[in-house]
Amino acid sequence: MFRSTLLLLIISITASAQYNLTGKWDVTATPEGKKPLKLDAQLKHEGADLSGQVNSPLGSGPVKNATLGDPDVAFQFLIGKYLFDVKAVASTEEIKGTFNGPRNMKGVFLAKRLDAAPVAPAVEGVETGKLADAEYRIDIPKNFNGGLILYCHGYSPNPGKFQKDKAPNELMKGFLELGYAVAQSGYSKGGWAVKEALEETEALRKHFITKYGKPKHTYVTGHSMGGTITIALAETYPDAYDAALQMCGPIAPIHSMFQRRLFDTLVVYDYYFPGMIGSPVDITNDVLDPLDLVSRIHKEATQYPDRLLAMQKFAGFQSDLEMAQVIAFYAGIQKELMIRAGGNPFDNRNTLYQGTPDDGLINRGVKRYAAAPQAVEYLKKYYTPTASPKNPILSLHNTYDPLVPAWSVNGYTELLMLNGGASNFVQRFVSGNGHCTFTPAQTINAFNDLVKWKESGTRPDPGEQK
User: Fold this and answer.
1) Cβ atoms 75, 50 nearer than 8 A
2) Which mean pLDDT values do the consecutive 10-residue runs of the chain (466 residues) have?
3) Is residue 75 exposed (0-12), middle (13-18) or buried (19+ Cβ within 10 Å)?
4) Which residue in 64, 126, 146, 287 has a CA-CA distance of 20 to 30 Å to 35?
5) Residue whose C-alpha is closest to residue 329's, from 283, 362, 397, 375
6) How far apart are CA 110 and CA 364, in angstroms?
7) What single string gives the DSSP state of each residue in 68-117?
8) Which CATH number fits domain 125-252+385-464: 3.40.50.1820, 3.40.50.300, 1.10.238.10, 3.40.50.720?
9) How far is CA 178 from CA 174, 202, 214, 223, 450, in A?
10) Under 8 Å CB-to-CB from 143, ≥6 apart: which residues?
11) If phi over 0 gives left and psi between -120 and 50 gives alpha, with beta otherwise, what is residue 271?
């Protein structure tokens, strides 16, 4: 009976949409208080259906009443007159779970694949769909070289959507022309969705392996918030990614970078233009209409040229319109962060402000706020880099970026020196103004240098990206 139970557990696993359990499995079942039992199973996994046979010294039996989830599955298995109920979690290569049988019998199991997981041949085309609540798109080129690029998109108020018949943009075309498949998750939530992006991009990578086989090489890249996610994926899953191309993302510890740039900018702006955004810890709902908010911020600022010049001097904005656009964008992020994190993550009670026409006046006059501890912890978790990468990371940044200033990347390089990870990181700059204003050619050139670094060990030089 104990052996039969283990077989039942194995069968339940075959039902996951994120993996393919068709094949032969070696199973070890360990009933409570008993020695481990060795079993085997032959499973067939087709879509939402699971069938097959479990073999034990007590006999063999079929799988029945399977309910397939992602990744949790449940099933029943009958050997003789004994019925077993199983709950398990599965991947393509391994199955883990628990079982309950007759006479209060229960235990744990571990099943490992004996053969290679079946995969569909990768053919030219576009696959779109949804994994859990996140939409995704996979492009496979005609000249597929066996490599995969995971692309992470930047900050957006809403989850990403994909149209199968829409042509890829110029950068994606560049990756495809090199022969790489490109996979993109839209994330299940908008906003500072680093948590969701980490989980759902990893699920997409596993989905690709399940359906098309393990890539020869896997790279990860992304712009802006996608650059943060790129670093986080490379550090969190060093065995999954061969190398990473980070572009224009806030890659220093996010809490400290956002405190210095986003929150302090809003605090000083609120001093010069009180009430325009509500307050830094009580953002107006006007951020839901960003175009109108930008217009009103811009109009208000131009009516007070001395305040406008002071604000531009403090934050380094190059124009009054740019200031209005960035303030509106920062206000939207702060409002969403407070909802997501459960409060204001920033504390400026001990902050000294510098860079205005009268710093004494500013430090006497700005409002001071305490942080909510749970919000601080959330932002520290998503994301504070370990800065000890195991694989090459190449990073690009504009020399002038009003949203994510060039100085912000220095926080990551300082951590690298402290943590001994500098040998796996190279920072390059693109001379120009704007946020993520790299040409597709510059990006492809950087990616080719990254691949060369990984494959030949030739570390690219820092400096200007051509």
Assistant:
1) yes
2) 42 48 86 86 82 82 81 78 83 85 86 79 90 96 96 97 95 97 98 98 94 93 98 96 98 97 98 97 94 96 96 96 97 98 98 97 98 98 96 98 95 94 96 95 97 95 96
3) buried
4) 64
5) 283
6) 64
7) E-SSEEEEEEEETTEEEEEEEEE-SSEEEEEEE-GGG-EEEEEEEESSPP
8) 3.40.50.1820
9) 7, 23, 18, 20, 13
10) 177, 179
11) alpha
pLDDT for res 225: 98
Cα 182 from Cα 176, distance rounded (Å):
7
Which helix (H) or strand (E) segment holds residue 217: the answer is strand 217-223
Distance CA 38, CA 341 (A): 47
Residue extents of the structural domains in the chain:
2-113, 125-252+385-464, 254-380
> Given this model, what pLDDT does residue 9 score?
41
Tokens 């694949």 -> residue: 113
The predicted structure's pLDDT at residue 10: 40
> Residues near 54 by Cβ (< 8 Å), separated by ≥ 6?
4, 6, 7, 8, 10, 11, 39, 40, 41, 60, 61, 63, 77, 79
What is the per-residue DSSP string for 158-214? Answer: S-----TTSPP-HHHHHHHHTT-EEEEE--SS-SS-HHHHHHHHHHHHHHHHHHH--
Cα–Cα distance between 400 and 317 in angstroms, integer?
A: 10
Nearest to 203 by CA among 13, 12, 70, 393: 70
- pLDDT of res. 177: 97
pLDDT of residue 82: 78
Q: How far is the CA of 129 from the CAs of 28, 233, 450, in angstroms?
A: 35, 22, 30
The amino acid at 86: V
> Which pLDDT score is estimated for 39?
80
> Which residue, 61, 53, 71, is CA-closest to 16?
71
Nearest to 334 by CA among 369, 309, 292: 369
Cβ-contact 334, 356 below 8 angstroms: no
Closest CA to 305 of 320, 316, 295: 320
C-alpha 273/C-alpha 1 separation (Å) is: 75
pLDDT of res. 129: 96
Indicate the residue type of 99.
F
DSSP secondary structure letters along 286-328:
GGGSHHHHHHHHHHHHHT-HHHHHHHHHHHT-SSHHHHHHHHH
What pLDDT does 18 receive?
Answer: 59
